[in-house]
Amino acid sequence: MAELLEVIDENGNPTGVAKTKAEILTAGDWRKVIHIWLVDDDSNLLIQRRAKKGGIFDDMWDVTVGGGVSYGEQSLHAAKRELQEELGLELPEEDFQLLGTWKMPPKTVDENREMKDFSDTYLVHVPKIDPAKLKLAPREVQKVDVISLKDLAMKIQDNEIYKKWVQHGREYYLGVSEKIFSNTANNHTKIGI
Q: Which tens digits make up the pLDDT trace of 158-178?
């Protein structure tokens, strides 16, 4: 049975209407998603390269984790679930700091589908990132890498490099990076990833 997501309006308000992801994309409806930015003490970001599986935005670079919020699910629960599903990490709720909700620019998937998302974006701050401790879900993630937030900003502003990234919008990548720089001094966690 296909997962149901809630349709939201163009202002981010829930509508109470449940549809599958395929139905939402075909209708061009808005939906709620989550993104997680896992950042260490040196302002390095864990990024993922999406799997080559015949899905959406395959083989492109993205932030640490992204995924849809199921119908009736709280975004924090979705963030915890997606982190565990994609990277094998189970972390307590207090390790997730909501940075805000971003209205993402619509993305054309193909001639029949359009993706329109509101992203609840979470920061997970860790002392150190160790990719060897992760258990990647091969159907979701083909590999991970670690880059500095400053390098991310440079990559996103280079048109040729940016083509290899999920097109969340330069304003999103740069805005979240700036917000993280202003918040990381106040965040810490008990574990080292």
A: 999 999 999 999 999 999 999
| Structural contact between residues 149 and 182, judged by C-beta atoms closer than 8 angstroms | no
C-alpha–C-alpha distance, residues 115 and 145, integer Å? 26
Cα 182 from Cα 27, distance rounded (Å) = 38
Quote the tokens at residue 35.
Answer: 């993104």
Question: C-alpha distances in angstroms, 35 versus 27, 79, 155, 160?
Answer: 23, 7, 19, 24
- Beta-carbon contacts of 95 under 8 Å, excluding residues fewer than 6 positions away, are 124, 125, 189
Residue ranges of the chain with per-residue pLDDT less than 70: 54, 184-193
Q: Confirm if 47 and 62 have CB atoms less than 8 A apart.
A: yes
- Give me the residues paired with residue 123 across strands: 37, 97
Q: Yes or no: say if 48 and 32 are a contact pair by the CB < 8 Å rule.
A: no
> Is this structure's pTM higher than 0.90?
yes
The four Cα atoms 27, 99, 163, 31 give a dihedral, to 10 degrees, of -10
DSSP letter for 2, please. P
- Asked if 69 contacts 121 with a C-beta cutoff of 8 angstroms, the reply is no
